[in-house]
Design goal:
Length: 266
Amino acid sequence: MPKAMRKRRTLITSPLAWQMTAEPLPPPIIPVLAERGGTQLNTPRPVLLVDTREQNPLEFSRFEGWFAGIERKALKLGDYSIAGMEDICVVERKDLSDLVHSCTTNRRVFINRLRQMAQYPHRLLLVTSTLSQIKSPYSHADENPNRITQSLIAMLAGLQVLFLCSETHELGEELVAADSSENDQRSCLKAITVPAKPIREIGAQRRWRDDCGGSDRNRQVRQGISRDGGAGEGAASEPLPPAQPSIQLHRQIRTKSFAAGEKVQD
């Protein structure tokens, strides 16, 4: 009888062996602050919104320094968002059993929901389960794990909806808190980068420029000179481009606009 070959020992431990023994650090007291030119920007803290229909919602008591408050509100789409950014920021949360049900029995409704999320600039699907658990046989459902995994990949490739997997609710809370805080800070930075000007001020500047003579092109337009150099009453003049007012994206201004029923375009 030939001797049985000894199994070679791998030098790298399998990830499944140390995955659950890891001890994640607690989250920082405050989020990472945006910087510009080496100076930290003091942006106002956002208000995190939790959908009233969310079952077993995530707990954000550890993130008091991250947000100005946590409010329960019926959201049009998703389970979590930011006050004043409900039309551009959405987070949908699924645990393993809900994900399996959504990808099989309730697939049509889930796909339609994902298509709506794809219209949002900032969208995220959070799965409170590990990817290895999604890929393993289920004790609660007789479904093929490969089908669920491929559905997530198709959702990412086809609809561009990012998904993140979290082993625990605590890590899921930190992912949602960090994503929401980052999106709000980027919105405030965009407002600082492109300061808003009232339309009245832009109009006054244009009138003042025209009264002072303006550019050669504007004078030609006022005198009725056509593009080919011809003049006269019926000459086709080149129209001036419309004024392009900057968009106000500061969170406080945006929140007031939404409260008044106005839609701010991003």
